[in-house]
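Quick check before the chapter quiz. The format below is the same one you will see on the exam, so make sure you can read both the input and the output lines.
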Amino acid sequence: MGGEAVEIITGRERRRRWSVADKLRILAECDEPGAQISAVAARHGIYRSLVFQWRRQARDGLLVAEPVPGFVPVRLEPPEPPSPVEGASEAASAPVATSARRASPPPRPPAVIEIELPDGVRLRVGEEVGATALRRVLAALRG
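Here is the expected output.
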């Protein structure tokens, strides 16, 4: 047997991908009263320089938490009555016979949702807009 060498790797040799949440949690630990950056870094198996790099990224706005979705108030209002068409003849506005009214109900007005965002932007969405499209629009307005 003889000249075989065994290399044991200990410490901080591995490369790990840290999530934004993990980075911010570690930075929060460093900001606690009495915390030492070297002790926090050692506890997580990282170099102090990496913590300082994350601090710089956070200070420069490059390392930020994902926005937490929240609820916004919703107010339902009855739909606005259709405005009369200008220049329409009086015959068109005459009352409809009772039997004709029972035969076909009047068309219902389209459903509309009005969303007012905290910054005052109002968004009116008809019922034909799908949930996926609405999510994309709201994400674009928030971003």
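If your answer matched, good. The longest helix spans residues 20-31.
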